Give the backbone structure.
Amino acid sequence: MTINLDLFRQHLIYETNTSAEMICQDIKEIANLDRESELQKQKYNRYAKYFGIAIGVCFLLFLVSGIFDFIPLAGIFMIAGFISIIGLIWALIQASKHGKFDLANYRHQVASEIVKMVSRDMPLDATISVRLVLSLPTQKNKLVETIPHPYQSGFKIDTFQDEWLKIRGTFTDNTDFYLTATETSQTKYGWKRSRSGKSKYKSKTKSKGTDLDLTMHYPVKKYGAIQALRGDVVNAFKLPEKVVLKKLKQGEKNLNAIAHIPSEIANDKFSIYQAVTMMFLSTYQVLNLAKVLSKK
Amino acid sequence: MQIQLVWTDITTGKQFNPTLETPITLGKNFQGMPAEMSGKRVSRIVLSDPTVAGYHALIDESQGELLVINQNPNATTLINGVSLPSSTIVDGDRLQIGAFEIQVFLTATAPQNSGNTTQWKCDRNLGFLIPKPCGRTDPTGCPHCHGNPNQPDVYYERSYYPDYGNYNRGYWGHNYYSQRDYYSYNSNTGNVDFTEADANSVAMENDTDYELDMGAS
Ligand SMILES: [Zn+2]
């Protein structure tokens, strides 16, 4: 285990450069923390509900005792009501404390699956460099732009970019790969006036989907003839149904592809894994042919 | 001794044709079959069907001959249609194990010749993206050498890209692949050379279909 969980809790970022096995072990630790926090959050939310019910019951009994002039009893219910209010606040604070570590499951799950997948074509002693960000997608430091809403006056739109995954390594054929996943989300917010004339603050966050960016830097000695395939490379690219190829750029020594996963499946572990795997398979469908053509 | 067994899975219709090292055991229950026999690693084949016994039959070599031995008194093993408790078998013989019909082929001419001794080499490809032959001369440690073709495909993700490694006619890259002998990459100039001169004539007669052997079958 290389992870320092105390340090991880502060920023919710896991960053390392080690063997695939170690990374998967570390991510398992993160998953444990996540699951434990989820359970704790649920537990305190349940407590909060009970205290809420107790407050209501105490208030009702307080009123009833008041009506029938049972003053001492009314006093007891009042005190019990206050205790329940304190209990409710405590439970909510506890729930939010644990809620901070209730992480987006799909992110750490898919990271560990991708690490396992790429490690199959890496030397046994190879290391993989990983950066996995599990903080909120709308955290302040991820804000990239604020613009006024195009037609709702008084409203603004914040755009956030959350580069939550970076994986870098070298395959057995000396090809370097560099993969990033970036989720874009937008928050629309402002004061809305209702029909009765009251102003109300509104804020809504929406995911705009995730971009997968894969760069392969290959040895030209082995794959140089890829130049002959220029223009046909795009036809070898196959992606899952809803995922679109946004960009494909072929340099002399590298190939860069960007695929976009729409928001409705951007938080689905399987969709992300499938898209990433197909990007790798597509690239190697090209490279394996280029290798045959590069031979003398 | 190395032999090849060929059969079709009666439930899935999938054909299997693994090349295996003796001793080979056949049965319904993987755990029920011995993993080792007189110091040799056993190739255990699972035939999932109620008509097959947990440990149904053994194929082993004895004094240069191939022998099949029925392992369960309540089960029958037919050799070319005849039920026998044990029998020698030769190239092309058919075994009936439960509802499975398995054909036996001797692969005496092993793929790898090193000097005058024929040495077995594992021909499975181990890479997922980059096919790399295993090449082990001993199945120990090879993730694909368990001799159990029914184990789940470890590279199941290839199904996301069913054409992967296939440059046959009608598939992506075929035009380049079919003329592969005329391409060469010059690492000094950084150019891809294409010797077009006699490309057309030879490409026609030499147009062997090709599939990168992903070896996971
Ligand atoms: Zn092997």
